[in-house]
Amino acid sequence: MPEADLDLLTDAARRAGQIALGFWRRDPRSWDKGGDAGPVTEADLAVNDELQASLMAARPGYGWLSEESDADLSRLDARHCFIIDPIDGTRAFIAGQEGFSHSLAVTDGDRIVAAVVHLPVRDITYTAFEGGPALRNGQVIEPADADIDGASVLTYRAVSEPGHWRDGQVPPFRREFRPSLAWRLCLAAEGRFDAALSLRAAWEWDIAAGSLIAERAGAVVTDQRGERMRFNSQRAMVDGLIVAGKHLHGQILDRLKP
């Protein structure tokens, strides 16, 4: 049942936070993974080891997909799969900033059915399960639905390049940024920002949990072409993302260059 998996993920996310805080602002060892994969720290690996051991012990029949684990394609044969980012926002973590999170999700087929995004420094926990509400620290959340003109959009600088937009006309939205992609989806879900947008392929572990939280909050959640996201794929990537209220989502999709 998704509710039971959500309880499991919530407990695991809090343990992950305790481990991460044991390294945070204590000069953890870090190194570059190479191949444009970015940095990793000893904290990422410690969190990953704990989550993999505890979650797989609790659900031995589930598959496992994590940013910090070796690829195991046997997950493709499992009905259910954990999709985990042990620390989302590793650069922020290394810099001693507060905006990193733990992103944990469970699939049923290609759908996310239970999800947690936990920010341990800020003591914020977002949760959702299939058929239930999206919550922030136990309180129901819902997105805003602004007009694209003046909307606050969580995204990166390159999205404002004219080549991404019809006729080279960049909509006059306000671009904002937060280091954790999972957190960006949750901020859009709770209406603190109007949308989260990426025109780059996104790793599933970055967006799996946040996508369900935003969807259950009432946002429209699609890839950059307006298609439903599908998870536990062989490539483990989604073709960009648009997360916003129905009106704003439609406006963004209409303005993007096909």
Which CATH class of the largest domain is shown? Alpha Beta
How much helix is in the residues?
25-40%
| SS-based class | alpha+beta
Query: Radius of gyration, Cα only, in angstroms?
Result: 17 Å
Strand order of the largest sheet: 3-4-5-6-7-8-9
What would you call the shape? globular
Number of domains: 2
Q: Order of SSEs, N→C? A: HEEHEEHEEEEEEEHEEHEEEH
Instruction: Return the CATH topology of the largest domain.
Output: Fructose-1,6-Bisphosphatase, Chain A, domain 1
- What is the strand content? 25-35%
Overall pLDDT score: 97
Which second-level CATH architecture of the largest domain applies? 2-Layer Sandwich
Tell me the name of the CATH homologous superfamily of the largest domain: Fructose-1,6-Bisphosphatase, subunit A, domain 1
The separation of the N and C termini measures 39 Å
Cofactor: Mg(2+)
Binding site for Mg(2+): 67, 85, 87-88, 206
GO molecular function: inositol monophosphate 1-phosphatase activity; metal ion binding
Keywords: Magnesium, Metal-binding
